[in-house]
Known about the structure:
- The protein is mostly helical.
- The chain folds into two domains: about 1-55, no CATH class; about 60-90.
- The protein is built from three helices and no strands.
- The protein has helices at about 5-20, 35-50, 60-90.
- The N and C termini lie far apart (about 50 Å).
Amino acid sequence: MPQKMTRTEAVGQLAALAQEVEIKDPIDWGMLNIRESEAFELMANSVLDQFYSVPEEHRHTVAMATMTKLLVENFVLNLKLHEQLKAKSV
């Protein structure tokens, strides 16, 4: 986290940037018990905790490994959802 930015500002910036990413299948937040902004702020706070718990020389590698893991999990989840929808339509 840059020294000129408070943790609250960093969480807000991470959450805002993450929400700007275009999603192919948007989440129906009305069906969940958490608001979209709360979910993004919660995850941004967790990311900051994890990022700064790792020695600085390993942060980029750990961040890229974490992104890869999340992308794979999201990919597999989307495949499973697609298969479920396909099975229901048969």
